Amino acid sequence: MRALGLDVGTKTIGVAISDELGWTAQGLSTLRRDEESPEKDFQAIVALVEENNVDTVVIGLPKNMNGTIGPSGERSQAFADTLSEHVACTIKMWDERLTTVAAERMLISADVSRKKRKKVIDKMAAVMILQGFLDHKGN
What residues does the YqgF/RNase H-like domain cover (predicted)? Predict the structure, then answer.
């Protein structure tokens, strides 16, 4: 069984998936959010869960640096609650502090252009969220 990692933003959702053994995370896609029909976001994720035999969805929880949960974190929690109504698998929240910053630094160090970074940053953040969860689960 696999795990799906999500970096949920206001405009996009970065998506990553684990290998069958649950050891490594790979970037899968970036979904463009539909502001007029949020239900489409959930339909796309349900399709990914079903296509890839996913048993756990890991959603990044953006916390403030002091550990409190602000508006972004509340939006992620609400997204997780709604997603739980659409899928039968386990949903976990994972602290995603600084994952986007780390993903950006990684892409800069790999000399990826600003234009290309913008296209893959959310997917990379999802990879980092999911890999953090997988590493923690493995210990």
Answer: 1-103
